[in-house]
Amino acid sequence: MEKTAYTLIRSQRKTLSLLIRSDGALIARAPLYMPIKEIEAFIEKKKEWIDAKQYEAKLHSQKYKKITAEPGAMLPYLGRMRKIIKCETDKVYLKGTELFISSSAGADDLIKWLKESALALFKKRTDAFAEIMNTNYASVKISNAKTRWGSCSGSNSINFSWRLVMCPPEIIDYVVVHELAHTIHKNHSREFWNEVGAFIPDYKIRRKQLKEYSGLMDII
Fold it and tell me: How confident is the model over 100-124, as pLDDT tens digits?
C-alpha cells in the first residue's frame, strides 16, 4: 500500500497533530523524538479523515474551474478527486483514483457517465433506505438542478441532482434519507427531523457539510 505523503515538522511539543493546508498538503507536527513508525501509524489510522480534508481543500481550490476531459484534469466523484486518463477504450471506467476515458471523449461523455452512475447509485441507496425506513416511493429520477440536491413530490416521486454523485457517500445517504423522510412527512417539522435522525443520527453535521459542497453545483 502506498504511504500517504506528508511533511514532518518536529518541535518541543508533547503531542502529534495533523494539519491539511489549503493546497491539500499534509503537515505532521511531532515531538522531537517520536519514532517515525509511530507517526506513520497515526497517519494511517487517520487516513479517512485525511482523504476527506484533502478532497475538500482541492475542491475549494478549483471551485470556479470548469471540469474538462483533458488528460490530467481532476473530476470529483464520490468525495474524491479522480485524475482523468485518456486511453484506447470504448467505455469510461474507474480504477482507484484514476478515471479512464476514450482518447476522443469530451466533457459531454464525462457528464453522461456521471449521470448514469448517479442514477444507478441513487436508486440502489434509495431502495436500501426505503426498506429500512419502512416507506415507499413512486420513482427515482435525476435532474439537472443546480440549486437543490434533491426533492420529493406530493406523489412521492424523488428527484436528485446528478451532481450529488460528486459528493462523499455519507453525504449522499443523508440526502437520500432526507427525501425519503418526505414520503412520510411533507414538511420540515420536528417529526420530520426525528425521522431523519432515527436513521442518520449525525444528520446535523452532514447537513452542514453538504453546504460546503455547494461549489460542485458550478463546476459542470
Answer: 999 988 888 888 999 999 999 999 9
Q: How far is CA 24 from CA 5, 52, 58, 99, 150, in A?
A: 11, 10, 6, 20, 29
Pair 116, 210 in one domain? yes
Q: Strand, coil or helix: what is 217?
A: helix
Handedness of CA 140, 218, 193, 79 (dihedral sign): positive
Q: 34, exposed or middle or buried, with CB in 10 Å at 0-12, 13-18, 19+?
A: middle
Domain ranges, residue 144: 110-217
Residue 190 lies in a domain: yes
104 within domain boundaries: yes
pLDDT in tens, 11-21: 989 999 999 88
Q: Please indicate, yes or no, whether residues 213 and 125 belong to a single structural domain of this protein.
A: yes
pLDDT in tens, 140-159: 999 998 888 999 999 999 99
> Whole-angstrom Cα distance, residue 178 to residue 150?
9
Are residues 201 and 116 part of one domain?
yes
Quick one: DSSP state of residue 37?
H
The answer to the question of residue 51 being in a domain is: yes
